[in-house]
Amino acid sequence: MSQDNTIDYFLKTCWQTVANKYNIIASQFGFTQAAGYILINIHKEGTSVSQIANATGVKTTSLSRVLNNLETLGFIYREVNASDKRSVKVYLTPLGVEKRRLAKDVVRSFNEFLESQIPEAEREQLIQSLQKINALATSY
């Protein structure tokens, strides 16, 4: 089996292409694909750092770096939980709310484009296959 003919090769190259496209678009708005994904996962009532990590699958060191960058850009702020000093919640600033809206718009637009190009039956089969691969990879 050749390396460029494996399921994981196609998964990786496909995701890399999508992530690169998102990065190109996000850079026009002053952030990255990873930052946009994190912004989308921060809720109005605040979101704990551990919830963001779980929702995004971003490793702690990378998440810390992105959160620091988002804070420097004025997109977020952090507050220590008064009842549990170990817990930190992340909140969006007004600028962060705007950037979050832009990130969501980009994701919606890109997905509308994909949906317009891939017939529904193919999309359903693709989603089922990806869910199956995810489950198999988890149990491997």
Automatic annotation (TrEMBL):
Protein name: Winged helix-turn-helix transcriptional regulator
One Pfam family this sequence matches: MarR_2
Record keyword Transcription present: yes
Domain HTH marR-type intervals: 1-135
PANTHER family: HTH-TYPE TRANSCRIPTIONAL REPRESSOR YETL, TRANSCRIPTIONAL REGULATOR, MARR FAMILY
Superkingdom classification of source: Bacteria
Keyword DNA-binding: yes
CDD domains listed in its UniProt record: HTH_ARSR
Keywords, in A-Z order: DNA-binding, Transcription, Transcription regulation
UniProt-listed SUPFAM superfamilies: Winged helix' DNA-binding domain (SSF46785)
InterPro entries cross-referenced by the UniProt entry: ArsR-like_HTH, HTH_MarR-typ, MarR/SlyA-like, Tscrpt_reg_MarR-type_CS, WH-like_DNA-bd_sf, WH_DNA-bd_sf
Matching Gene3D superfamilies: Winged helix-like DNA-binding domain superfamily/Winged helix DNA-binding domain
